[in-house]
C-alpha cells in the first residue's frame, strides 16, 4: 500500500521536527544555558525529538501502530512548543513543534 500524501507530509514534518529539536537543544540551549538547560525543559526536548523520529519510523514501515505513535507525538510536540515558548528565543522550535503536532494529530485520527 502506497503512503498517502498526508502521511508523506507528516513523515517529513516529523523528521524536520526531530532535526530542529535535537539541533536546537544540543546547540542553542546548551550554549545559552540558564532556563534553556533546566532538566525538565531539556528532557522534554529530547523526548520530543525521539518521539518525532519514532513516529516517522512507524509511518515509514507502514504499521497500523503509527496511529499510537502519532497520537503521542502530537501530545509531546504540543507540550514542547509551549515550553519552548515559555523559555523564549526559540521561535523556530515552537513553530516546528506546532506544525508537527497538527499533522500527527490528523494521522492519529
Could you please describe the fold and organization of this structure?
The protein is mainly α and 109 residues long. The chain has 4 helices and no strands. The protein has helices at residues 5-32, 39-60, 66-87, 91-108. Helix 1 (5-32) runs antiparallel to helix 2 and helix 2 packs antiparallel against helix 3 (66-87). The longest helix is centred in the first third of the chain and has 28 residues, at 5-32. The radius of gyration is 14 Å and the shape is elongated. The two termini are 19 Å apart. The mean pLDDT is 95.
Q: Biggest sheet: strands, sense, closure? A: none
> Quick check: average pLDDT?
95
Order of helices and strands: HHHH
Count of DSSP E strands? 0
Beta-strand percent range? under 5%
Quickly give the structural class: mainly alpha
Descriptors:
mainly alpha, 83% helix, 4 helices, elongated, single chain, 109 residues
In short:
The protein is an all-alpha fold. It is built from four helices and no strands.
Topology:
Blueprint: H1 5-32, H2 39-60, H3 66-87, H4 91-108
